[in-house]
Amino acid sequence: MLLLKRGCKGEGENMKTWQRMFDQKMEWEKPNDTWSLSVEDNLSPRNPECGWHLYQQRKVFARFQCSCCARCWPSAQVPIFFHMHLDRSQGQGQVKRRVCGQKCKKCHGAKFETLTFSQENIERILDNLVLKIREKCYREFITNRDLADPIVEEDVEGPHDTTRCEACALGICYRSTYGSVIPASLAAASQPGQLAWWGADTESNWKLLCYVLPVLVALLVLAVLFSGK
Ligand SMILES: [Zn+2]
Ligand SMILES: [Zn+2]
């Protein structure tokens, strides 16, 4: 089931695809539970309500169309946020989705425009989402945690226009946080999935840091002790 709160033909048509594919995937994975996906334009991107889990898919390729002048443009910097919740006693799950938009550069003061994703990218994003639902809502131990990278379907030229980007306005844009430079530790990631995994799951990275940091401190202390002898 999908509830659409923003009216736009392109978005509406595209959302039917999201709904159909999400329903199919969840019916296959969790046939005994009922899941719904809704669009929430005012979702607080990084602050899910108590009992809800966050999954963010960064840097997705999408195509925008201006509702005023009909101009089209592509972007490879679109972030998508999902908040997920499962009521186990009722067997009902809910996902809320927010996509950050962009403004048309020809129509000054324009609103953040709606966008469309390719079917292939929707498929990949939903596969990632279902994996995170299994992991976070059902607490399943998943051995292969590699997430799929969304496809960049065409070259996007020019620098990122921060003044037109909703994610930049919210202070959550990957591009404005890191510029065009990928941190060296990420660039060294040997598998393509690792970069997406890092970008996609901040919560896990903080947990990882909590484990790694005490070990590093202990090693440093040992090194100082031995060098003093
Ligand atoms: Zn326009
Ligand atoms: Zn941005």
From TrEMBL:
Cellular location(s): Membrane
Transmembrane segments: 208-226
Keyword terms, alphabetized: Membrane, Metal-binding, Receptor, Transmembrane, Transmembrane helix, Zinc, Zinc-finger
A molecular function (GO) term: zinc ion binding
Principal cellular location given in the protein's record: membrane
Annotated membrane topology: Single-pass membrane protein
Biological processes per GO annotation: detection of chemical stimulus involved in sensory perception of bitter taste; protein insertion into membrane; protein targeting to membrane
GO cellular component terms listed in the entry, alphabetical order: membrane
Record carries keyword Disulfide bond: no
Residues in 3CxxC-type domain copies: 59-171
PANTHER family: RECEPTOR TRANSPORTING PROTEIN (PTHR14402), RECEPTOR-TRANSPORTING PROTEIN 4 (PTHR14402:SF8)
Protein name per Swiss-Prot or TrEMBL: Receptor transporter protein 3
Organism phylogeny: Eukaryota, Metazoa, Chordata, Craniata, Vertebrata
Protein encoded by which gene: RTP3
